[in-house]
Specification:
alpha+beta, Helicase, Ruva Protein, domain 3, Phosphatidylinositol Transfer Protein Sec14p, Jelly Rolls, five-stranded mixed sheet, four-stranded antiparallel sheet
C-alpha cells in the first residue's frame, strides 16, 4: 500500500503530501469508531489499484499552474474531469439512497458484545443436551432432501418440535450404539417432516382458486411493508449535494482537492458531512462566542478579481491577556477553534456558488510581531485548525499572501517549498516588511487595502469610498514627483494622498490658467515622517479655471510608493 500510494506523488505531484496523510488518518479514525464504515475501508484499496489509470487525469490537472485558469462550468471541463464529476454524483446518489451520510449511533458499538456473551452462556448445558444438539444440527443439511418439495420449509417449526422430543428419548435409551441412534433419528425426521407437505397440496387441490388469491394478497402486503427508503437529503453551506449547478461547484472543490480521484473525493465528502453533524456546524452559526478576536481575523474589501479578502493578524497575540484568554487551556483553545470555524462558515455563506461566481477568498497573513513557533499553545491550536480546514474546507483559498514575514519564516518556507506541488505553490506569496505594501497592491487595489497596510481604506465617514479608484506611482530615490488635478470654474477639488512610509517632503498649490493670475499655496511644503500622518486629505474651492499641483520630494535612497485620488464637485453661489 505504501509503495503504491507513493508512485503517483512522485510521478506528477498531484497534491500536497500533507493532504493525503490527513485523509488517510481521517479514514482510519472513521473506520475504528463507526462499524458501518467497514465498507469504506475497501474503497481506498480499490482507489490505489486504479491510480495508475488515473495518472493521465493527474497530468492534465497539474497543467493549470494557477487557480485562475480553472473553470467551474461543467460544460467547459476536460472530458476526464467531466467523467469524474459524473462518477462522483453516482456514488453520492447511491450513498444518499442508503443513508450513508448519517453517523451511526453510539449504542450500535455495544451490540456485538452481548451477542457473544449469549453464545458463551448456551454451551453451559449438560453433555447429553450438547450431544443432542450436535446430532440434530449435523443432519440438518441432510434434512433438505431431494424427495421433499420447496414448500415444506414454510412449516419447518412444527416438525422440529416433534423431532426434539423423540431425539431425547432415543438417546437416553441407546447410549452404547451412537451410530444406530443417528440413523434412527434421521428416519424419524423424515417420517415426521413428510406428512404436513402432503396434506397441503391435497387441501389446495380440493379447494378453489380463492386460496391462491389469498396467497397473492398476502404477498402484496409484504412488498408494501418494505418500501425503498426515501433518499437522504444532505446540504453543505446551505446547498444540497445534488441539486443544480451550484452543487457541481462544491463537488469540483472536493475533486480538485483529491486530484479528481473519484473514490478519494467521495470519502472526503462523506467524512466532511459526518464531521459537520458531529461538530454541530449548522447550530454553531447562531452561537454567541464573543468579539474579543475581531482584530485578529476580519474581512475587509475585495481583491482586483472580486475575491473577498480575509486578514489574519498574528501580532495581536502579543497582548498577553488576549493570549491567555484564548490559548491558556484546552477549553479555551476549543472555544477559539469553534469561533474560527464559525467565522469561516459565515464568510462562506456570503460567497457565490454559481459556476461564474466567486466561491473562493484571499487570505492575507500578517506575521509582524507574531509570537513565533516557540508558543506551544498557539502552535497546538493552529495545527488543529489547519487539519480541520484541510479536511473539510477544500479549495476555498484563491491566494495565500504572507506579509511582514520574518527571516525565520522565509527560511522555513524555502525548506518546505520542494515538497509542495506547483498548484499549491502558485497560491503562496511571501513578502518581507519592506515589500509588503507592494505585494498587496499587486493583488488588491489601494482603495481596498486598510490604512495600516499602506492603503486608503479606513473606518468612518470619508469623502471617498471604495468606488473611487486610486492611482499608484513609484517615486525613484532622490527625485521629485508632481501630481496635477485640473480645476474648472466654480468647483471644489477634493483629494487624498499618502506615501507608504512617507519620509518625504510634501506641498500643494493652485496654479490658475490665466497668465496674469496668482499662484495660491494650498499646503506649505513640509517634511512628513513615517509616524506623522497615514493619509493627507485636503480640498480647494475656486471660481476660476486652473490646476492643483502636488509635489512630493523623495530625498532618500529608497523607492517610495505614492497613492492618491481626487474628484471635483461643482458648486453654485
Amino acid at each position: 500500500m505504501a509503495e503504491e500510494t507513493q508512485k503517483p506523488e512522485a510521478a506528477a505531484a498531484p497534491a500536497p503530501a500533507e493532504e493525503v496523510v490527513v485523509e488517510k488518518e481521517s479514514e482510519q479514525e472513521a473506520a475504528s469508531e463507526k462499524p458501518t464504515d467497514a465498507v469504506v475501508e475497501d474503497k481506498p484499496a480499490e482507489a490505489v489499484e486504479e491510480e495508475p489509470k488515473v495518472e493521465a487525469k493527474d497530468t492534465k490537472v497539474t497543467e493549470s499552474a494557477s487557480f485562475k485558469e480553472e473553470t467551474n462550468i461543467a460544460g467547459e471541463l476536460p472530458d476526464p474531469q467531466k467523467k469524474a464529476l459524473d462518477e462522483l454524483k453516482q456514488l453520492i446518489q447511491e450513498a444518499l439512497n442508503k443513508h450513508e451520510f448519517t453517523p451511526p449511533p453510539a449504542k450500535d458499538k455495544d451490540k456485538p458484545a452481548p451477542e457473544e456473551k449469549k453464545e458463551e452462556d448456551q454451551p453451559a448445558t449438560s453433555a447429553a443436551e450438547t450431544e443432542v444438539k450436535v446430532e440434530t444440527e449435523a443432519p440438518a443439511p441432510v434434512e433438505v432432501k431431494e424427495e421433499e418439495k420447496a414448500d415444506p420449509p414454510v412449516e419447518a417449526p412444527a416438525p422440529e418440535t416433534v423431532v426434539e422430543t423423540e431425539v431425547v428419548e432415543k438417546v437416553s435409551a441407546a447410549d452404547d450404539d451412537g451410530a444406530k441412534t443417528v440413523e434412527a433419528i434421521e428416519e424419524s425426521v423424515v417420517a415426521v417432516a413428510t406428512p404436513p407437505p402432503a396434506e397441503k397440496p391435497e387441501e389446495e387441490a380440493s379447494s378453489s382458486l380463492k386460496p391462491d388469491e389469498v396467497a397473492q394478497s398476502e404477498e402484496k402486503p409484504e412488498e408494501a411493508e418494505v418500501p425503498p427508503p426515501t433518499p437522504q437529503e444532505v446540504s453543505i453551506w446551505g446547498i444540497p449535494l445534488l441539486a443544480d449547478e451550484r452543487s457541481d461547484v462544491i463537488l469540483l472543490k472536493f475533486l480538485r482537492a483529491r486530484d479528481f480521484k473519484v473514490k478519494d473525493a467521495f470519502t472526503m465528502i462523506k467524512n466532511t458531512v459526518i464531521w459537520r453533524k458531529e461538530f454541530g456546524v449548522d447550530g454553531l452559526l447562531d452561537e454567541e462566542l464573543g468579539n474579543e478576536l475581531e482584530k485578529v481575523v476580519f474581512m475587509h474589501g475585495f481583491d482586483k478579481e472580486g475575491h473577498p479578502v480575509c486578514y489574519n493578524v498574528y501580532g495581536e497575540f502579543q497582548n498577553k491577556e488576549l493570549y491567555q484568554n484564548t490559548f491558556a487551556d484546552e477549553e479555551k483553545r476549543s472555544k477559539f477553534l469553534r469561533w474560527r470555524i464559525q467565522f469561516l462558515e459565515k464568510s462562506i455563506r456570503k460567497l457565490d456558488f454559481s459556476p461564474n461566481g466567486i466561491s473562493t477568498i484571499v487570505q492575507v497573513n500578517d506575521l509582524k510581531n507574531s509570537p513565533g513557533p516557540g508558543k506551544r499553545e498557539l502552535r497546538q491550536a493552529t495545527n488543529q485548525a489547519l487539519h480541520l480546514l484541510q479536511d473539510n474546507y477544500p479549495e476555498f483559498v484563491a491566494k495565500q499572501v504572507f506579509i511582514n514575514v520574518p527571516w525565520w519564516y522565509l527560511a522555513f518556507n524555502m525548506m518546505i517549498s520542494p515538497f509542495l506541488t506547483q498548484r499549491t505553490k502558485s497560491k503562496f506569496v511571501c513578502a518581507s516588511p519592506a515589500k509588503s505594501s507592494d505585494i498587496l497592491f499587486r493583488y488588491i487595489a489601494p482603495e481596498q487595502v486598510p490604512v495600516q497596510y499602506g492603503g486608503l481604506s479606513r473606518d468612518g465617514e470619508q469623502e471617498f469610498t471604495v468606488a473611487d479608484a486610486a492611482t499608484e506611482v513609484t517615486i525613484k530615490p532622490a527625485t521629485k514627483h508632481s501630481v496635477e488635478f485640473p480645476v474648472t470654474e466654480k468647483s471644489t477639488v477634493v483629494w487624498e494622498v499618502r506615501v507608504v512610509g512617507w519620509d518625504v517632503n510634501y506641498g500643494a498649490e493652485f496654479v490658475p490658467t490665466a497668465e496674469d493670475g496668482y499662484t495660491v499655496i494650498v499646503s506649505k511644503t513640509r517634511k512628513v515622517g513615517p509616524a506623522d500622518e497615514t493619509v493627507i486629505s485636503n480640498s480647494f474651492k475656486t471660481g476660476e479655471p486652473g490646476k492643483i499641483v502636488l509635489t512630493i520630494d523623495n530625498q532618500t535612497t529608497k523607492k517610495k510608493k505614492l497613492v492618491y485620488r481626487s474628484k471635483a464637485k461643482p458648486y453654485s453661489e
